[in-house]
Write the structure tokens for this entry.
Amino acid sequence: MSNALGHSIFAAIITIFFISILNASMEVKITAGIIAFGFAFLPDIDHPKAVARKAYREFGTIIVALVLFAMLWIYGKMEVVLAIALSALLAIAFIKISEKFMPKHRGITHKFAFAGMLAVAMYIIMAVIGNKHAAIYAISGLIGYCSHIILDRMPI
Ligand SMILES: [Zn+2]
């Protein structure tokens, strides 16, 4: 079982179990649950039709376009219409080119070592910005991410 529905169900079960044993406030439990559930879709960013890739393509384009627009219009003092057009075109091109460099399906993004490194990076970033629950959220991400890898490796 490795489609989006299967991953959603499995991730929901793992997430509900995880937050039910978590000794934390309701706010932290809900945030941890959202992180665990969301991270269960991330490994398939390496698949062109996956939910994670679509999100990367759509939100990625918007984020890159906004950053470019800010650079061109605010800092570059470019004409606003030209800045919008140029940042949109460059963002689309950037995301399209970046997709050419995605690893093959079920490659590095489907390794437990990669999941571990991602969780450590997440912990460090959140600890640096002063999040008090950095460890819980990093573990939530790790659990969600690993639930995907485990399900993909099941022979059903
Ligand atoms: Zn997968």
